[in-house]
């Protein structure tokens, strides 16, 4: 089970996530005789077999390289083929923690969609737990079922069902005995009443409804209140990616030096124009002028300095990336406590 069990070496038929760049990760199934093509060149699958996961490989002509990564739910989320909007790790990691999902948990998920969150649930509950996922769209259901089989999600049962109309009952199972519910549906308030006979009665049950519109939130909260759920809370998560790097300290002397440099270049340029010569010719032209070396200037042109190079004053700064790959919605959490036992 590649998403649950770790392995060291790549074998034929394994799912490998090929890291081309930070924004390009491609899933492939390693097959002898096939190739993975990129703008850097072609990578033969035969060269991957037998390597350790995490290895770097180059093209036969050393024009480029990629990394061969072992599948994880987080990497799969970044590389999977989208059939619907998906739950990114920004939300899924928080939901798993908030609902206290752990090894042995029993989870109900509806709908399955592209299967992004399904993989995170399956890894977390592990072989000791169970995941029951429902998808109403037949084509998406068939595709997800095929992927789960290839990925070895043996603890996952996927069902083709519109839970808003037909509930969560699975043939041959009296009760799913679930302690975790995740609903990513257009109208979760229609599905919530069907949960009554499918959740655990002897332990705490947590639910999360993933809704992009506030009108959906209002209806969901009303339904949860009417159905006896407590501790209802609305949360929204937002992802931010910070990059850290070093920058050189700048002072007034640097600025003055830069201004003097610009003024000198302007004066030289005007003299060349008056003499009928082009000011942007090579430094070794018939003007006889040569480029002056003013040393490193953090405000403009100068010598190329490697970040953090000794001999200069540096300090650490962070920069916020303008775009983060995520799709967040309103998260409505609630819970049900086990029925109290009467002591006679």
From TrEMBL:
GO BP terms, alphabetized: tRNA methylation
Classification via SUPFAM superfamilies: S-adenosyl-L-methionine-dependent methyltransferases (SSF53335)
Enzyme class label: transferase
GO cellular component labels: nucleus; tRNA (m1A) methyltransferase complex
Cellular localisation: Nucleus
MF terms in GO: tRNA (adenine(58)-N1)-methyltransferase activity
Listed InterPro entries: SAM-dependent_MTases_sf, TRM61_C, tRNA_MeTrfase_Gcd14
Family: Belongs to the class I-like SAM-binding methyltransferase superfamily. TRM61 family.
Descriptive protein name: tRNA (adenine(58)-N(1))-methyltransferase catalytic subunit TRM61
Biological source species: Pichia californica
